Amino acid sequence: MGKGRAKELIFTCDMIDAQEAYRIGLANKVVPQAELIDYCKKMAAKIISKGSYAVSLAKSAINTGLDVDLSSGLKFEADLFGLSFATADKKEGMSAFLEKRKATLTDF
């Protein structure tokens, strides 16, 4: 959602439903309420199945990248990428990919 749409919603206090929130990019997914907890558990399990250090680095790259100029953001991302290559998970992930098997991640 762009800055203009965000300002419009905040300044007018207009209420929108879930479908509209999804349409304008305010929500990533809309599920029936009866399926919400199950969906959230599946999403959490999917994220947890990834290396927590890599997820942490990705989160940091996204959050920082939004607040700096392009050059600084690219340097920060490259630095984090370098950190990720120093982990056992990187080696395991690449080996698993080449061997066409699921990786067993240890986080470091």
Give an account of the 3D structure.
The structure is a single chain. By secondary structure, the chain is mostly helical. The chain is built from six helices and no strands. The protein folds into two domains: 1-30, no CATH class; 33-108, Lyase 2-enoyl-coa Hydratase, Chain  A, domain 2. The chain has helices spanning 3-12, 18-23, 36-48, 52-65, 70-84, 88-98. α4 runs antiparallel to α5 (70-84). 2% of the residues are buried. The model has no long low-confidence stretch (mean pLDDT 89). One of its GO terms (biological process) is fatty acid beta-oxidation. This is Crotonyl-CoA hydratase. One of its GO terms (molecular function) is 3-hydroxyacyl-CoA dehydratase activity.
Describe the secondary structure blueprint for this structure.
Layout: H1 3-12, H2 18-23, H3 36-48, H4 52-65, H5 70-84, H6 88-98
Poorly predicted regions: none
Helix fraction bin = 55-70%
- Determine and state the CATH class of the largest domain: Mainly Alpha
Cα-based radius of gyration, to the nearest Å: 19 Å
Instruction: Report mean pLDDT, rounded to a whole number.
Output: 89
Count of DSSP-assigned helices: 6
How many structural domains can be distinguished in the coordinates? Answer: 2
H/E order of the elements? HHHHHH
Silhouette? flat
Which class best fits the helix and strand makeup? mainly alpha
Tally of strands: 0
Family: Belongs to the enoyl-CoA hydratase/isomerase family.
GO molecular function: 3-hydroxyacyl-CoA dehydratase activity
InterPro entries: ClpP/crotonase-like_dom_sf, Enoyl-CoA_hydra/iso, Enoyl-CoA_hydra_C
Protein name: Crotonyl-CoA hydratase
